[in-house]
Amino acid sequence: MIELTVPTMTCGHCVKTVTRTVQQVDPAARVETDLALHRVRIESALDPHAFDAALTDEGYAPQAAA
Fold first, then answer.
1. What pLDDT was estimated at residue 64?
2. φ, ψ at 10 (rounded to 5°)
3. Other C-beta atoms within 10 Å of 29: how many?
4. Distance CA 25, CA 10 (A)
5. Structural domain of residue 28, as residue ranges?
């Protein structure tokens, strides 16, 4: 399980964009978002850096969740 904090995820549109971006990297990924905590949990066998790069390219630079 990959857990990221995405401080710029602040609305429903952001959640949709983040979810779509993750699923573009790995269509089989399971994505859970918590808008209030700005958290994204991704269940995927892919390298976490692939998601970091894709989210950063979309303007949602993640930080490792604490």
1. 63
2. -120, 0
3. 17
4. 22
5. 2-64
pLDDT tens string 12-41: 999 999 999 999 999 999 999 999 999 999
Residue (of 28, 27, 30, 26) closest to 53 by Cα position: 26
Instruction: Compute the Cα dihedral for 35, 12, 56, 42 and give only its sign.
Output: positive
Q: Per-residue confidence at 63, pLDDT binned at 50, 70, 90?
A: confident
Cα torsion through 16, 27, 43, 52, rounded to 10: -70
pLDDT > 80? residue 66: no
Q: CATH no. for residue 31?
A: 3.30.70.100
Q: pTM of the entire structure?
A: 0.89
Query: Which of 24, 32, 37, 35 lies closest to 2 in space, CA to CA?
Result: 32
Report the domain count for the chain: 1
